[in-house]
Each structure stands twice: as C-alpha cells, then as structure tokens.
Amino acid sequence: MQENDPSVHGETDAFRRAGRQRRYRDTIMVTTLAPCWYCSGLVRQFNIGTVVVGESVNFRGGIDWLRENGTEVIDLNDAGCIAMLGDWIAANPEVWNEDIGED
Ligand SMILES: [Zn+2]
C-alpha cells in the first residue's frame, strides 16, 4: 500500500513517473477521487490545467480551491468510484485518515 510511504499518493506517484515536462498547463491529471490538499498543492505548484476526478462525494479535497485558482476540475460523479472509495474508507479508516492528514 503506497510503498509504505505516506507521501506516495496516486497523484504524486503519477506525476513523478511522468517525468519532467516543459510546462504543465496543458496536462490533464485523472484521479479516482478528489485530490487532497497535498495533491492539490502539487497541481497548483506546477500549474496543471485540468483535473478529472471520478467523484467528490466521499471526499471533497481541494477541488473548490483548485477551481477558484483557475484549474478546470471535471467531476464525473461516477457511481462506481463512489462505491469503491466508500468501501475502501470503511475497510481502511486508519490509512485513509493518515492519507488526508486527520487524526
Ligand atoms: Zn493526495
């Protein structure tokens, strides 16, 4: 799970694996769930233009802040993603809370 490293989130892992880019404004990041504050900061830091999220029902993350700062956020509100994340949070509450920085 996350290579036993709490700093490895889906967004940061994908970003690292994509390698250096000349610019990120035309980059589209696609995630199952809304990015947390940490990952929203990554999006803002590198001026990633568009984020597609599978859902924001279970977790709103930083999507309002991203929108307020010019990032296009497309929320698919996908029932499959809502069920998958809801089930995962219910089964792994301690890991989830660590991920989003809550006690
Ligand atoms: Zn994150």
Q: What are the salient characteristics of this protein?
A:
alpha/beta; binds zinc ion; globular; 103 residues; three-stranded parallel beta sheet; 3 strands; 5 helices; Cytidine Deaminase, domain 2; single chain
Verbal overview:
- With 103 residues, this protein is of the alpha/beta class.
- The chain has one domain: 3-Layer(aba) Sandwich (Cytidine Deaminase, domain 2).
- The chain is 43% helix and 12% strand.
- The chain has a 3-stranded parallel β-sheet.
- Strand 1, helix 2 (37-45) and strand 2 (50-53) form a beta-alpha-beta unit.
- The protein is globular.
- The two termini are 19 Å apart.
- Zinc ion (ZN) binds at residues 9, 11, 35-36, 38-39.
- Zinc ion binds at residues 9, 11, 35-36, 38-39.
Short description:
With 103 residues, the protein is an alpha/beta fold. Helix content is 43%, strand content 12%.
Choose one word for the global shape: globular
- Give the amount of beta strand, in percent: 5-15%
Total beta strand runs: 3
What is the CATH architecture descriptor? Answer: 3-Layer(aba) Sandwich
How would a crystallographer describe the biggest sheet?
3 strands, parallel
- Annotated CATH homologous superfamily: Cytidine Deaminase, domain 2
Gyration radius from CA atoms, angstroms: 13 Å
The top level CATH class name:
Alpha Beta
Helix percent band: 40-55%
Distance between the termini: 19 Å
Strand order in the sheet with the most strands:
1-2-3
List the helices and strands and how they pair.
Blueprint: H1 10-18, E1 28-31, H2 37-45, E2 50-53, H3 63-68, E3 72-75, H4 79-91, H5 93-99
The structure holds zinc ion (ZN).
